[in-house]
Design a protein that fits this description.
Order of helices and strands: HEHEHEHHEEEHEHEHEEHHEHH
Strand content: 5-15%
CATH class of the largest domain: Alpha Beta
Number of helices: 12
Structural class: alpha/beta
CATH topology of the largest domain: D-Maltodextrin-Binding Protein, domain 2
Oligomer: single chain
Mean pLDDT: 90
Amino acid sequence: MKILKKFSTALLGTALAAGVVAGAVAAETKLRIQTHFSPETLSGQMAAEFIKDVTAMSNGEIKIEMFYSGSVVKAAETFDAAATGILDCDMTGGAYQTGKNPAFQFAGDLNGGYANPYQQMAWLLHADGYTQLNKLYNKHNMEFVGWWIPGPESLVSTKPIRGVDDFKNWKFRSPPGMITNIFKNLGASPIVMDFNEIFTALETGIIDGADAANLTNNIGLGLYDIAKHTNYPGFHSMPADHLACRKDIYDAMPAHHKAILKVGMQALALKNTSINEVKNAENSVKMAEKGVKMYEWAPEESAKYRTAVQSAWTDYATTPEAKELLNSHLNFLRGIGAMK
C-alpha cells in the first residue's frame, strides 16, 4: 500500500508539474487592429463580433485591441502603421494602398466586375485568391488574412443621381484608386478624403455627395440626415475590407492561431454579407418613407458605367502585379460564365 501511495503521489506531482509547464507555455497573441468603421455602424458591430468569436475559439489566447473610426491614424495610413509597428494589423481595405502599387485596387474592388459578394468570395476561397493577394502583400511586409464584403455600395447625394448625366460637375468624396479615374471620365469631380471627414464635408457643402459605403453603413454614418438622394440597389462598387497583419507578427503566431484568424474572417464574411443584404432591404423601405429619393438605374445607364469601368481596368493595370491580379479575376469570371 505504501508503494502504491508513493506511486500515486508521484503521478499526481508529475501531472501537476506538467500542467504548470503547459500553462506556462500556452500560446498568446496580442493584436492591435484599426478599422475605419465606427462602433455604431453595422460593420463596426460585426468587427466587435469577430473579436468575440476569435477570443472564444482561441480560449482567450488571442487578445485583440480594436481601434475604431481611424482613431490612431487616418484610414489610408492604417496599412503603413501596421507594417511599421505602430499597429499590428489593418482592418480597412486594400484599395487605400494604390499609391504603392495599382495592384492594390484589384486587391480591394474590381469596380463593376462581380455581381455580388458571393462571387467575389468564391475567387478568394476557390480560385487562387489567397496566393495572388499574398504575393502582393508580402512585398510590403504584410500578410493578407481575409476579406469581408458588405455588398454593393450606394452613392449618397444632395442632388438627384438618376443616371450618368447627373454626374456632370458632381463634386463627391471618393476613395483613392481607380474609382476616381472612372468618375472623372464620366464628368464628375472626385475629391479624395478620409472616411471620417465625409459628414462634415457634406454638411458644409464642400461636396455634393459621397462614395462611402452601402445603404446601411451610410445610415450609420448619418449621411442621409444631409443627403436625401441615393441609388439602390448599388452597382458601381463593392469593396472588400481586409484583415492584414504585419508579416513578422503573423509568422510568429502558432499554426492554430493563424487558422483561427483565417476561419474567423471567413465566418465574419458570411455573417457580414448576409446581414447587410437583409438590413439594406429593410432600410431601403425606411429611408424611402423618410423622404430619401431612391434611384434604381435603368439597364442602359448601368451599361454606360460598366463600359467605362472595363476600359479603366486595363488602363489601371500598369504594373506586373496589377496585370497578374486583374487577369486572375478575369480568368475566374470567364470560367464561371459571368463575363466574356
